[in-house]
C-alpha cells in the first residue's frame, strides 16, 4: 500500500550540533523516481476535524483546536495527503515516516491492521495537536493502540530541547527513545532501536510491551532487550540496502571507529568527532559512497558500483532538515530547510516556519513537468547531471556553496530585522519569498552552466567544420 517506502533519517541532539539547535532530517524517497511534492502551510481553518484516510479508510475525529504547521504533501491527492515533514506554531517538529522492518514472530502475535493508520496519515493527525516532542510520542502512541497500523514505521519528533524517536511494533505496539543531547542517530529502512530500558525516564512504550516479549518468547538474546533483535530483521537485503547507509554516514561523522558496511549490529546512538552542521547533514543525506568502490560514479567494478543502495538516490522526492534553534527569539526558532528532487544536485533552503503561506515556486507544483516550480527544475538538473557526473560536479559544488552562503546571509539579516516587527509572520513570509527568488535564480544559472558544459560533449558532432 505504501509508495513512500525508502528513506534515510538523521537526528542531531542540541549539544551535538554546531549552534545548539536540535535537528531531525530525512530523505523522503519513493518506490518510483517522480512523485511531485508541494511545500505548504496548513492554517487552523484548513485542518478538517473529520479525518478519513484514503488508503485504509480509517475515520478519526480530530481535536477542535489545531495549531498551524508546515508540511510537504503529495501534489496528487489520489492516495492521501502524505504530509511527511513539518514544524507547528508551538515550535515542535515531526518527520513521518521512515519505513522500517519487522519479522514473523511479532507479526504472528500482533498482526498489522488493514484498516489502521499509516504514513499517509500520521503527520496530519498528530503534528497540529502537540506542544512538545514527548507529547508527539504520547499522542501517536495512543492512536496506534486505538486504531492500529498496517505497516512498520519510525517517526521523529523534536522541540528545541529534546528529540524523540518512535518505532511501531506489529499492529498496535510501539517504543520510543529520547535521543541524548550529545548524540546523533542514523536510521535507514530497518528497525533501529537497540538496547531498551523499560524503567528509564528517557524511554516510552505501549504499556504491555515487556509482557508481550516475555510471554511470547520473542527475545533471542540471553540478556537485556535489544528491540532490533526482537522485532526487526537481519537479512541479506539489510546488508545491501540498509546497513551500508548507516555505516557510511557513521563513518563520515565518526571516522575513527572502524566498522563494516555489512555489520548487522551497527550502533543506534552515536557520538560524532565534531559538532554537526546543516551542511554536514545535507551532505550525508546526498551521499553515494564517495571515495569507496561502491560509488556508482566512482572507479569500482560494475558489480561493486551496483552492490549497495546509496543514500542520495534518483527516488529522493524531498529532503527536509527541521531545525529548532536555541539562540533566537521564540518567533523565529523553527527553520524548515527544504530541497526537492534527487539530492546529488539540489540545495536546501532555510524557510522560516512561523508563516501563514509559502512561496509559489515551492507550493504550486504541477503533476506534469514544467519549469515554473523548484520540484521539476531540480529534477531536470539531476537527470542531466547523472549523464556525466564528473563533468558537472564542480559547478554543482560551487552552486551548493554559493546558494547556502547566500541563504545564510539572508537569514542573518532576517533574524536581526525580525526583532520588533508588528506582523512577524508577514515579515518572515517576505524573507521566504526572497529565499525562493534567489534559489530560482541560482538553480537556473546552474542549469545554464551545465548546458554550456554538456553541449561540446554531445555524440551528435563531427570534427570537420565549415
From TrEMBL:
<keyword id="KW-0645">Protease</keyword>
<dbReference type="GO" id="GO:0070004">
    <property type="term" value="F:cysteine-type exopeptidase activity"/>
</dbReference>
<dbReference type="InterPro" id="IPR005322">
    <property type="entry name" value="Peptidase_C69"/>
</dbReference>
<dbReference type="GO" id="GO:0016805">
    <property type="term" value="F:dipeptidase activity"/>
</dbReference>
<dbReference type="InterPro" id="IPR047804">
    <property type="entry name" value="C69_dipept_A-like"/>
</dbReference>
<dbReference type="Pfam" id="PF03577">
    <property type="entry name" value="Peptidase_C69"/>
</dbReference>
<keyword id="KW-0378">Hydrolase</keyword>
<comment type="similarity">
    <text>Belongs to the peptidase C69 family.</text>
</comment>
<protein>
    <recommendedName>
        <fullName>Dipeptidase</fullName>
        <ecNumber>3.4.-.-</ecNumber>
    </recommendedName>
</protein>
<keyword id="KW-0224">Dipeptidase</keyword>
<dbReference type="GO" id="GO:0006508">
    <property type="term" value="P:proteolysis"/>
</dbReference>
